[in-house]
Amino acid sequence: MSNILDYIDWRGDLTFDASPFCPVDNLVFSKLIYTDLEGAVPDGFSTSVSLADAFERYTALGRGARGGAGDPFPLFERAAKSARFRDVRVCGYEKTFDGQRTVQFAAASFLFEGGIYLAFEGTDDSFVGWREDAELAFMDVTEGQREAADYARRASDSLDGAFYLGGHSKGGNLAVYAAAFGLAPERVRTVFSNDGPGLNAVLAGSVEYAAVRRKIEKYIPESSIVGILLPDGSDRTVVKSDGRGLGQHNVYTWQVRGPFFETADERSPSSVFTDEAVQKWMISMPPEKRKIALDALFDALESSGCTTFGELGENKREGYNAVLRAVMSTDPDARRQILEGLKNAAKSGGEVIWDNVKRRFESSGAIRKVIGKHPAKTGGKPNDGSI
Prior knowledge:
alpha/beta, 8-stranded mixed β-sheet, 15 helices, disordered C terminus
């Protein structure tokens, strides 16, 4: 099984002049933006540094591998030393983390032979980042989306040429929004959403989105959970992954062959199940109720004294007890919405299971046969085969 690290090992000697930009290059850039490039890359568009120089500055600042399955450092190091990526110019690095405004945002511009790639960071481990993700379920436009569109506008004012835009997870959602609401359609070449949530119904129905929809390439792993949220009508390509469950969200598990992804014919049953369950849950709770429930839930998480899920995991007993106390101390309406949300989520999951079982039985004719053998179930009359 080969991933983007293998891609650089095998094709890193081919410059963009020799081998044009491809979908796998998009995934490399969308992963590199998870690196904290503050101090290593200029924050404006007038000056830039090579990726090789950015790596040297990064390590000179005492930064290095963070560890963990999704650490971008191994990719950064290999890319910076490869003929393909070392001369890519990087500029316009911006990072915002604001708990008051609920914004966890980072972006950078990668300039290479043949184009410009605006990369947007996905969600980190912080409660702020995840709360921002939750806001996609009930807000027309988030603060992060506004920042992404503003970033794209300023990049287009300063840089010449057409743009590729992309990101992983929430970053894919931001890239789509920035392309639709931050750039003139003719400046957009391709938009890449790598397992990113879609846009809500209001945005997906806009003329701005319609103008760029055909330029969107969306990639999701077989067991996608994040990328199936908020379907906005964009086509999706299913990528093979050697991960399991939610672990497939990690792009290091995505399989590549040369400049392309290894693709699958369809999503896994678990991804389809999650998709249907989430849609039922969304229908069962109007936006205003989703807001109350999700706000109360994240307020409770933050009351634990932790700021990230990693910290919460390290202090399970104290953290979870604090969260439980906070939930129980919320006002009755908020507490009711949290419990109703959990109940509806469970109910939606159960309904999906029943719907799937029912469809299988109906397709085989089994239900008709079983019910037809029990006249007592139909008022003493044999069932006519209708359900």
